[in-house]
Amino acid sequence: MPAKPSGQIKTSVIKKPQKNGDIYILERKTIYDPEKKYTKVLSTKLVSKIPKGSEIPVPTRPKRQKKSDPDAKSEIVSAKRTHVGMMDIIDYVGAVSGIDDAIYSSTDTGTAQKIISLARYLLATNGQSLPGILTWQYNHPLPYEDGITEDVYHNLFVQLGYDESLQQSFFKHRCESLSAGDALAYDSSTISTYSEYQNEARYGFNKAHDGLRTIKLLTLYSIESRQPVAFAKQPGNLPDVTSVTNAINQLLALGISTTEIITDNGYYSEQNFSELLLAGFDFITLAKTSIKWIRPEIDKQRGALDDFRSVCPFDPSTHGVSVLLMHDFEKKRKYANHRSGAEKGSTEIFSRRIYLNIYFNHSRQSADKAAFEADLFELKTLLEAGTPIDELSGSAQAKARKYFAVRKWGDKITVIPNNKAITEANKYHGYFVLVSNKEKDPFECLRKYRKRETIESFFEAEKQHADGTRVRVWNADTLRGRMFVQFVSLCYYEYLNEKIRKLKDTLGKKNGDKAHDTREILNNELKLRSWLCNTPLYLQLQWFDTVESVDVSVKLKNRRWTTEITARDALYLQKLGVTIR
């Protein structure tokens, strides 16, 4: 009769030869399974080995235990290394600019931390695509410490896209930082996309000229502080001129009612002037010289523009004069007036004082004429090749009918230029006009308008430094959320860029302080200025990304050290007001 199984675990030692001649000594634990009627191996552990040609067992190295193993001993030393130099600069920018406070005041802490973390990532990486943050955040400290994943920032964009209160609250904080007498540039940029799911992506004027559908980004930008204030988006096929009314409504909602708005000729229309005047806004707008009520004034002022007294003090190649006019504007009544009998929607005429600032530039005259003739030559070539006028764009059709006569004899096409019309058009090359209801000094008006051009550098930064060239999201609301994060990042960028611009103007110059005006200090400042002039902002930040902090915990002690920096780097941080932690 067979013995009954004991049910106990048995431990045995076995020897297992290896191909290389070594013999492994294994400790094996087994137990007999009465139901299946065989011995089951529970575990096998290598305890030692007998090397080839030897008879003495050699102990083997114990297997490394995982940190998650409850039997593992606590580590004696734990350490963490992070890149703090660049992040300390960005953290400083967020604090002194008021951008971080504006975000925290507009939403809950967790959402604010996510927005700020993504905005800082875009600034620090020069607009790298967002999936890169998954590994980048491990050694770069960010406000949101729980970790940002693709799901986190996607859900954030969806939330921001629907949370209009958060965005408008942030814009309101931005408007409150405007100084008295500040002027706002208003302009648009287009974002191209291949997406078929963005219902606002439509064919229209594409500034990239890549033939794709676009979404239009409209921005209000302070020309004095060089800071973006607010933005909006609209379908790409809507003309710029129709967006001024929305900008007025947005500013009024944000508590801005007396600022000066500066635009280029894409926003010129009598209707826009009426809207701005009735809302109480001042404005400067570039107008076309072909407008009926402007061209006669240019003819009247040709002599005055030849006078030496009309030379611009900061640009001698430009002459300018100002003309005061009373101009009639139209408005449509929003409400009926029972006393006067005026009906709702009826048109009324009102007069306002307008300053017509007229300028002439010889260099611009040559450039305008060359561009005009090149444009006409290209148009003439198309017509001679047999392209029907009706197939041209609207502006090209108008030019073709005005400056050419097309004759056909059989298969032969002859394009005859209208020399009289061309000569008349050439008379106005080199002239440009700024219309304003406030600026009666032509050169102050020109100075402010040229400052408006800084918004173009903002749009360039939006595409180059904030990953704004492509849409990268599926729907319009999510895009709105993504654009808001990019906007915050650009607020960081523009603030730091302006601070660096002002810093360069002071470096290497005496200020009357004997302690400062020494040869050694001035030379060090000149070296720093040279570096700043030859190093883009992104590379300046990357330079300080090599400054690392190491935190070491040794049971009873906590220690921290930071890599050393050069004298020039220390001067850079001192001038900015940044302290490395």
- The rounded distance between the terminal residues' Cα atoms is 81 Å
Number of domains: 4
- Give a quick account of the main beta sheet: strands, pairing sense, barrel closure: 9 strands, mixed
- The fold-level CATH name of the largest domain is Transposase Inhibitor Protein From Tn5, Chain A, domain 1
Backbone shape: elongated
Return Rg in Å.
36 Å
The percentage helix is: 25-40%
Task: Quickly give the CATH architecture of the largest domain.
Answer: Alpha-Beta Complex
Share of β-strand residues: 25-35%
Low-confidence region ranges: none
Strand order of the largest sheet: 8-7-6-9-10-16-13-12-11
- Summed over residues and divided by their number, the pLDDT gives a mean of 82
Number of H/I helices: 19
**CATH first level of the largest domain:** Alpha Beta
Would you kindly provide a written description of the structure presented here, covering whatever features stand out?
The chain is of the alpha+beta class and 581 residues long. It has four domains: 10-64, no CATH class; 149-365 and 430-499, Transposase Inhibitor Protein From Tn5, Chain A, domain 1, CATH 3.90.350; 366-426; 500-576, no CATH class. It has 19 helices and 18 strands. A nine-stranded mixed beta sheet has the order 8-7-6-9-10-16-13-12-11. Strands 1-2-3-4 form a four-stranded antiparallel beta sheet, with no helix packed on it. Strands 5-17-18 form a three-stranded antiparallel beta sheet. Strand 7 and strand 8 (227-235) form a beta hairpin. Helix 2 (99-106) packs antiparallel against helix 3 (109-124) and helix 2 (99-106) runs antiparallel to helix 6. The longest helix is centred in the last third of the chain and has 31 residues, at 476-506.
